[in-house]
Amino acid sequence: MENIGMDKSESQTAQPGIEQVMHPEPLNIRANYRGSEKLKGKTALITGGDSGIGKSAALHFAREGANVAIVYLNEDQDARNTRSEIEMESQNCLLLKGDVKDEEFCNRAVQLTIQEFGGLNIVVNNAAMQFPEENLEDIQIENLKTTFETNIYSYFFLTKAAIGHLGSGDVIINTTSVTAYRGSEHLIDYASTKGAIVSFTRSLSKSLANKGIRVNAVAPGPIWTPLIPATFEGEQLEKFGKDVPLGRPGQPADLGPAYVYLACEDSSYMTGQVLHINGGEIIGG
Prior knowledge:
alpha/beta, Rossmann fold, 7-stranded parallel β-sheet, globular, Sc_DH/Rdtase_CS, NAD(P)-bd_dom_sf
């Protein structure tokens, strides 16, 4: 994939960000990606599925034959656009607007998904927030709470609500980050939540192995999603993702096939693991 520069991008004023105003627009699925019914008849529930990595997973799942329920915060037009794109894949999409920091909303999202589609097979915990600060003492307590409640509490809430509806062969996929492995001096709280997601994935995989429910994760590097212009500005935005060995930020389309792999039978002998899709940065784990 060509190296797409970010020099035309403008920062946004609120998280998690709006895809439709990004320049250049993210690539969510390659035109030459051919589905082969790997998820035919399945139902997936994805948090943060209106844009970015979550949207890419949703579109790839749909092209593989799954119906998709998308949880989003307040990005109504992005969510409607994603639903239209899923429907163009001849699959159904349920939009679920709400805050994943609210346990009751997470419970309701699972129930509404099951009511709409008759079951649930794939849970993708993906929603995230980040508030960069250069020093630990500059981290505001409200931002710290928002980061932990969005990035890890919600994983517990949604998974807890879903487990009783999952059976052998069903899967849970968590989005962690390269920062969980190498740390980040300006995203200390965010990186901490991503480290917690790795431990959550490993521990839950052991807990659910006897039920045949697999739990894995994806650890993206720098990916061009709405969260980036909603977080950074100026020189940081222009240089985003250019310091990895491959020399470019990743596109959501670089991630979607990994979620398909973890969701389908191709990864049937894999649980408690993390796929590292980060532009060539070599890290442990």
